[in-house]
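> call design_seq(struct)
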């Protein structure tokens, strides 16, 4: 049965290539897809018989051509061909080095210890304001305190953190 497939494929190979080339508009890709068609037909024959081998080859080749176009369209949406090299360099430069990342982690740990030394309400005000980006009015309503108290707690926390980072940088 495999000899029959080889014979039919050899007879229809050029027709397959031309039909696929009309879809993908590239002879090399059409030839590759024709070969893929043969491989798929051969595998299908191993699992059972194909009633109409020539029709199967043409339909498989057509489907492979359409799949190729879909993949190419998806790839072109994902890949950017005309990226300005300066943008790529800028992205690479924005990534901190390992040393910078370690230093930043150490600063964050030091800052966390400094915040832990503040009263609980002051810590909460600082986190809601600077981490969660809540406005002072919302923080005041949430905690049941005045906006002026929120402002004062924030001022205390910011000063405390600034002093803690200054001490850290001296060491």
């Amino acid at each position: 049965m495999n000899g029959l497939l080889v014979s039919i494929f050899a007879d229809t190979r050029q027709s397959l290539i031309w039909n696929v080339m009309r879809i993908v508009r590239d002879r090399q890709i059409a030839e590759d897809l024709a070969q893929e068609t043969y491989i798929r037909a051969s595998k299908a024959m191993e699992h059972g018989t194909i009633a109409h081998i020539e029709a199967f080859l043409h339909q498989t080749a057509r489907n492979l051509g359409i799949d190729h176009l879909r993949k190419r369209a998806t790839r072109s949406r994902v890949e950017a061909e005309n990226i300005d090299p300066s943008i790529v360099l800028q992205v690479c430069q924005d990534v901190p080095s390992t040393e910078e990342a370690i230093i930043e982690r150490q600063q964050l740990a030091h800052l966390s210890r400094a915040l832990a030394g503040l009263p609980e309400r002051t810590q909460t005000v600082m986190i809601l304001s600077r981490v969660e980006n809540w406005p002072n009015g919302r923080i005041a309503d949430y905690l049941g305190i005045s906006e002026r108290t929120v402002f004062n707690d924030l001022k205390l926390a910011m000063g405390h953190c600034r002093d803690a980072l200054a001490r850290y940088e001296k060491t």
